[in-house]
Every structure is written in C-alpha cells, then in structure tokens.
Amino acid sequence: MLQPSDLAPGLLVGEGVSLPDDTVIGGNVVIHAGTAVGAGVSVQDGAVLGKPPAFGARSKALRSGELPPLVIGEGAVVCAGAVIVAGAAVGPGAVIGDQVYVRERSAVGRESVVGRGCSIENDVVIGARARIQTGAYITAFTEIEDDVFVAPMVVTSNDRTAGRRGAGVPLRGPRLRRACRVGAGAVLLPGVEIGAEAFVGAGAVVTRDVAPRSLVVGSPARHVRELDEGELLPA
Known about the structure:
mainly beta, UDP N-Acetylglucosamine Acyltransferase, domain 1, globular, eight-stranded mixed beta sheet, eleven-stranded mixed beta sheet, 2 domains
C-alpha cells in the first residue's frame, strides 16, 4: 500500500521505505515497498522506484514469486520519469537518465550512466563506468563489462528464432567485454561476444564474435584492422 508523504510534493511511499535525510526528491515520485535508498541519492520528478513487474498472458519471462527490494546506491541519480523495477540494483554514483526503464534482476554498476530513453531488460549486468547512450536497447541476459561505451540507438538481441523458441531453449544476449565500443545504430545478434577494446562501427550488424582490439564495420560486420596502442583506454 502506497501512502502520501510530506517529504516532497506528490510523493507516495510504500511500506518499509526509509529515506536518508540527504535524499533529494522531486515532485510526484513513487517509491514502492521495501526499496532501499542510499545516502545522497537524487530522485527527480515523476520517477518510479521498485515497481512490481507486469507480464503478458503469453510471456515466457521468468516470474519470480518474491523479488528482492530495489537497491539504489549512495550518490546515485534517478532522472525524471525513469522507472526501475523491483529486484534491480543501481550502484553508487550511477546515473539513470530521463525516461529510462530498468527491469527486474538487472544491475547497473558504480558510476555508470544510462542515457535518456534507454531500455534495460531483465537479467542484464552492467559493470562500472559504462556509458549507455540515448535510446539504446539492452536485451535480457546481456553482459556489459567495465568501461564499455554503447552509442545512441544501439540494438541488442537474444532470440535467433524471433519469438519461436522451443520449450527450455534459453535466451542469449550479447557479451560486451571490458572497454569495447559499439557505434551508433549498430545491431548485435544473440550471443555474440565483443572482445575487450574492440570497436564496432556505426550501423554495423554483428553476426559473430568480434576479436579483442579489432575494428569491424558493415553488414554483416567484417574485420578491418587491429587497433593500435594509441586507441586503447589507458590502463
């Protein structure tokens, strides 16, 4: 049961929610029962924290009977209109942009930034200092390691059958290894691995694994060259 709170205009708070004194809350925020909010967190107008998930009648998504509470780490920022589902976790200093949607059992690491309008589906793991830019779609069961850059409008996928999987056939999202970069509008097919420090060019369609420190472009993506030391992230 949500109850009005006088801590901010239009704030609704569920049972068991305790907000540190230095929490900054905008207008019309909803915080569902059990959500854990760290010190120094900022939650902007219209954000919804700890939302219970909803499923279609024919959805094959895993339904956890009791999801753990949403956890928002200290100093994190949840921007206007963002929705974060119960069972997710947001690391310290992370920024969840305007109108972002983060689903259950997903984790966004320390100091990572998720840009406006991104969708982070269920069971996604994002490491520290990653940058996921405007409008990117991160499909369920994707793994994104530390210092990865995902440009605007990147699309990841996890089902080679396009919705016609047999019973018991798992979904497989892409795996993005440390400090790789994925250019604007690229498409990553199910289960592909982008190697550490690899660079996927804008608009590429990646159908197979990309070796570490390599540049790939085109549709389907093809190897162009190896990246030199000057193009790598400093150790």
